[in-house]
Structure formats: C-alpha cells, structure tokens
Fold these 3 entries.
Entry 1:
Amino acid sequence: MATRPAGVTLVAVIVWIQGLFTLIGGVVSLAVSPAQGSLSGGFAVAGIVSIVLGVVTIAVGVGLLRGSGVARVLTTIVLVLSLANAAYAIVANPASVVTPIISAALAVIGLILLYTGRANDYFRR
C-alpha cells in the first residue's frame, strides 16, 4: 500500500483550510443577515451557499487525505478553473497581474503535487 506523499497532504490541508474559511464566511453572512432586516436577503443566500460549499470543500480535503480519486478529480477541476480565471484576470486587467499570477502559480503547483508519480501510486491503491 502506497503511503500518502507530502505533496498530497499539503494540497489536502490547503483545501481543508479553504473550506473552513468558506464555512466561517457563510456563518458570518448569516449572522449579518438579520441585521439587514431579513433572512431572505442576499446575505442569507450567500451565507447558505458558502456554508454548503465550505462543507463540501472540507469533505474533498478529507477525501484527498484518504486517497479518494473523486476528491482528486474535484480538486483538479477547481485548480484548472482557477488557472482559467487567472488567465482571464490577466487579460481583463493587465494593470493588476500580481494576484492572478500568484493564483495561477499555486494552481499549477497543486496540479503538479496531485499528479507526481508517488501521488499517482497513492490514488491507485
């Protein structure tokens, strides 16, 4: 049985942290929503969506730690979308390229770490 490579662990922890922040953001949006006058407003909808996305993201991070191929595919899709978004941001606003370049670099690093030889062995087990 292949042991989990450090790169997969790193990507999983980053995914898990992102999910936690998304979940916290959703809870904060719901907390702010009553102050806006109603739970049916935009803050409430954004809060509920963020909570669901946060929970799913945390589950994907746990899946990566457990060697789930589905979690690997979902993470790959998100990283590829992040790359596409970064490319669009660079073209759409050439004056502000630092953040999209960093985002693209992190996505590429994440993809590389998920598809090294050791990572491939880990996800095939």
Entry 2:
Amino acid sequence: MSDTPPDHLAVDPRSPFHDEAVLARGVGVRFNGIERDNVEEYSVSEGWIKVQVGKSRDRRGNPMTMKVKGTVEPYWLNLNAKAE
C-alpha cells in the first residue's frame, strides 16, 4: 500500500471506488482546511466530497447525500499501522 491515500474513495460497498483494505487502515479527509468525519465519498482530482444530508433516506433506504466542491486533502489516520 502506498504512503498517500487514493485519489477517489467511497464508503459504500456497491461503489466501484470502494476499497476495504484502505478503509480498514483508516483515511481522514480535510475539506477546505476543516477535518470532516461524515464524508461518504471523495475525489481529490475533481475537488468534491459527498456528505450525508441529515437523517434523510432515499426510497431504497440509503442515506441522501450532497456533493460539495472545494479543496480535498485525504490523509492516513494511523501512520504507524502496518500495511497488509
């Protein structure tokens, strides 16, 4: 595993950008200089994050999300963790 988090990552297992090994290691996201802990998906190259909107759900029971544009900076939560 590399020293930098992936460019695009999603929490939803149905997404093609979902990576269980990366999520198990722990990734934090700094958005516009503020650390966010409610990010569902992010893209560094496109400059956006998707965050959950309240407790709203869509008709399939998935959380409603909103895309917000800005500066995205992912980082590893635990730098001492061993990559498998």
Entry 3:
Amino acid sequence: MDHTSLDIFRVVAAELSVTRAAKRLGRVQSNVTTRIQQLEEELGVALFRRDGNRLTLSTEGERFLGYANRMLALADEARQVLSPQAPSGTLRIGSMESTAAARLPGPLAALHVQYPDVQLRISTAPSRQLIEQVRSGLLDCAFAALPPCGEMASAADLEAAGLHGEPVFREEILLVLPPGHAAVRQGADIAVRSLAAFAQGCSYRVLAEEWLGQDTSPLDIQEVGSYHSMLACVAAGGCVSLVPRSVLELLREAPEFRTQVVAKVDTWLVHRNGYETAAFKALREALTPFVSKQLAAKRKSS
C-alpha cells in the first residue's frame, strides 16, 4: 500500500478508465492495471466492478477511496511540515459557493502570485458537508457558515470535534423577493411560498426555513445548484431566496428585486486542530488585508 499505488488508485477512481488514468499519470496501461491488481490482492477485496471496458467503484472501493485520500493528504502534510522553508505542496480548500465567488478570488490570486509552488485545489459544497470533509481529512480547510442549530453551531462544538474555526468574513444575508412583491416584516407576509435554495446541509437554507416557516403555510423547497439559478427563479416570480449581499452585488444589471436584511452571518475558516503547514499559513496571510478591508468598511458604515 505504497504512495504510488494509492495515487494510481485515486486517479483510476476519478477517471473510471484505465486508459484515461494511464494518460493522465504518464504511465503505460499495463503498469496501471498491474498496480491496481496488486493493491486488490493486498487488501483482499475487489476495488472496482468490471463490465467489459467499463469500470465502477465497488462498495469496498468507495470506502477505501476515503482512506486513500486521507493517507495521501497526510503524507503531503508531513512533507510540508518537515520542509517549512517556503510554502509548497497542495492545499485543498473547501468553500461555500458564495464565498468562492465574492470573497476568495482576491486572496487566492495574491497567494498564487507570491507562492506559485502552492497548488490550490478548490471545491464548493454546503457548509455541513464542508465541515465534515475537513473533519474526515478530505479537505485541509474550509470556508463555512456554522449552522444556526446542530452539532457544530459554535466554536466550542468545533473544538469538541477536533476542529478549530475563526470568523473571517461577515455576510449580510438578504431575503430576495420577486420584483413588485409587497414589503414584508415577517415570514407570514410573504405571498410566494416556494424557496429556491441549495441542497440539505446549507446553513443559509436552515436560516431561511426558520425565518420563513414560522406560523405560516408549508414551504415548497426548490433545490438548485447555484445562486444564478436562485435569482432566476426569484426574477420569474415563482420563488423567494436568501442570498448574501456580496453575491447580489456581483450582478452587473440586477433585476429590481425587493430585498430585506434577515441576518448577519459569519463565514468561518475551519481546519483540523494542529494543522499548520506553510501553505496554510500563507493562505491566512493572504486573507489578512481583505479581512481588514471588510472590517474597515463595516466600521465606516456603522
């Protein structure tokens, strides 16, 4: 179960094709096939189901993939910690879509310019999944909003789970209503009873369901995959949604939505306790001027 075999397995699992995996790895197909067969013999299980030239991960393969990702990440972390002279290696960053779009381009560009040897891998998901992926080792860190309720709703809850978090951005969360909708003060005032939101696990969705669902008729949840889709649903008059103001400000020509501030929610940078690679420290340094800029703007407006 050496590093090379784990890496080959991970690429084959991603491509689900020995041919594509071999090309991506710069290896001959026979070598990739042999490595996978040797790994399966060592583990005593079939990692893939084979139907002609078609590959799919077996149940055991899906479970092993998580371990392989964590072992490879831990090896990379060890190399970075033992050679801290300059940030390098891979940094796997998870983020809410809103943060990735509105907050991270500046810091990540600055980090890349200063430390080009750091390979940044960015993925997006709802907050609950992001926190779990950090806890399980699939991500090195994540930008997430702590859920209003649940098992990790505070810094103390994170610490109990072996994680550490600190607020880095504060988002003003807006209720976005279709153009022409009457003013609202509470959930009962909303005429449209359909909510455009991300899948379960999104902290903003939990906030929306709590704010909109009190003492009113049931909500119809329309799950979508992006804020652009949410805003399109609202513009069409069929839905309402909760959207960070920073996302709405990205639109060049936003429709004349009616908006109302519902809450102010912190975005936390979450990582495992003790995770302090040079690349992660560089990320925190790159964030500092952008966080300071937001704090200064907040003081000016208050």
